[in-house]
């Protein structure tokens, strides 16, 4: 590349980077609710709308309440993946939707949850709303090329049978859809419909189709509900959580960039520039794709930043190896990218598979994590493989061609990691067993193996009308300590009701005497009136169905990753070893939760998912080097295999340490600067990063070796 061309490309890249970074900064500076350029924040960071419904039936069954909660959860996820729905008392359901401030518009769009029936012309009921699984507005082009507006129905298995029977008996007749006793649509049955899907055509506009679809969706609930009240609530964590998280991210990013420059010289400088662009692109993606950002989402971003650095570390290590082997810098750069490509692609695709499955199968915070992780993976590959590469080409063409600017790999003394595999296996077993022992002790103490927060087990919601209009910061400073002292609960959640002097205080489940003690403390400390305090038991915001969705998502993602690794490495022993190492990391971090008694809430799911993504990526890098060192060899000699495994682990040791260190720096800054709830999230994440580094170096290669020797036949 000629100098003039290189200079032009470099200036263009830097100009684009500066412009995008500046504009991304303006997006960050206007974070909030209701602005076109804002990034949506979840209830934990920014608050939103809270709506309370009451069941029309006087004594709804527990099964119907649970089913309605889950179905409403799926409905409101169209507004935000981070919306939460939970039961309050025996017959009420609360819906909290982040990122919005107009309760009336939500109520109007959501519709009144009522009873819905599909009837024949004589008024006999053929199907009820519970037979409908989903309804969505759609468009299509007819034979004349004109746009038609329709509602697409998806029925349950039982509903599909009923629908086929109903349409067969009513061909040529209308089938009125009756909602709360009023006919809202009267589609004509043209033919018998089977297969579990159907269309309602003839809609006058897309808006009309969307309105009908929304009414059908809300009418498929197990219970008929009536609105009690709605309110705008403040953030659960407060504004300080946002400012400290941004500050921690900025400082962490600066330290990572400094580390990369010191360790990797000119390539590290180019990676730092690309990392700035990556951060800006991530902010744009959150804004463009209208993603609601919460603590789990921040976890996904942190992991993807670690992986963005990881790709560069793998490339730079390869370049240094080629320079040490006597290649010119230009040739070394070309070969470095070529040889690093398979590890980068396999590691990122494996993690991307997990992100896609979690996004499709998960609910709530799991989806938020999956979206940010998926976006981060794609952007990190782009910045590492395209932006960094072009920057290095430009600097090289402009005269920075001396090998001293790039560094050369030092001669490695192969470390006999596998010779100590028995010690490593024993250490891992001790940590895992200690976790189960800790769970047993916890269960004997209070009946719970882990320190579950109200996100998982529910609790008590106390609404207090104070005499003063406290700010969120004042609530955290003055009110929360009083509540924590009385309830002995370190995980108190508070929400300010906008436009009032009310504060909603959520704690663990309180007995009657504890409620009375809390009421008295609030009366004594803040002079509130006794009739200004109301309390209700609330269910967990993470429902059993959401837990099931998360578990199934992780199981399916793990199976898909196993299949991909098996396909790419053409040996199931690689795949089996990676999954066992992944399970090892999850169990060790679970042991950390049990022994340290860290609160298990919504962020627990995010933490575990982060560790899954991080663990599998670290494992792939080592396995890729083992595959390369094996070449096409059919060797089964244990000594030769041990030498290959030890050499591969030693060759990738610098990558394992440096990537873990850069990711640890990001999380450590969150731990140092974050509010208490963020520290509780960062602490187990740090444990997971350390565990992931340990398992990738000490466990994965040893597992592969054992499987290779013990199960010699494929």
What is the CATH T-level topology of the largest domain? Answer: Multidrug efflux transporter AcrB transmembrane fold
Q: CATH superfamily assignment of the largest domain? A: Multidrug efflux transporter AcrB transmembrane domain
Order of the strands making up the biggest sheet: 2-3-1-11
- What is the correct CATH architecture of the largest domain? Up-down Bundle
The pLDDT mean sits at: 81
Could you walk me through the main structural features you see in this protein, from its secondary elements to its overall organization?
With 714 residues, the chain is an alpha+beta fold. The protein folds into five domains: 3-25 and 237-405, Multidrug efflux transporter AcrB transmembrane domain (Multidrug efflux transporter AcrB transmembrane fold); 50-111, Alpha-Beta Plaits (2-Layer Sandwich); 116-220, Gyrase A, domain 2 (2-Layer Sandwich); 418-435 and 543-710, Multidrug efflux transporter AcrB transmembrane domain (Multidrug efflux transporter AcrB transmembrane fold, Up-down Bundle); 459-538, Reverse transcriptase/Diguanylate cyclase domain (Alpha-Beta Plaits). The chain has 20 helices and 15 strands. The chain has helices spanning 3-29, 62-76, 103-110, 157-169, 206-218, 239-288, 295-324, 329-361, 365-397, 421-446, 454-457, 472-487, 512-526, 544-569, 572-596, 602-630, 638-651, 653-673, 676-698, 700-710; strands at 48-55, 84-88, 92-98, 116-119, 125-128, 132-141, 147-155, 177-179, 182-185, 197-203, 225-233, 459-465, 493-496, 502-507, 533-538. The strands form four sheets. A four-stranded antiparallel beta sheet has the order 2-3-1-11, with helices on one face. The protein has a four-stranded antiparallel beta sheet with strand order 5-4-8-9, with helices on one face. Helix 15 packs antiparallel against helix 19. The longest helix has 50 residues, at 239-288. It is globular, with a radius of gyration of 29 Å. The two termini are 48 Å apart. Mean pLDDT is 81; it is low at 30-37.
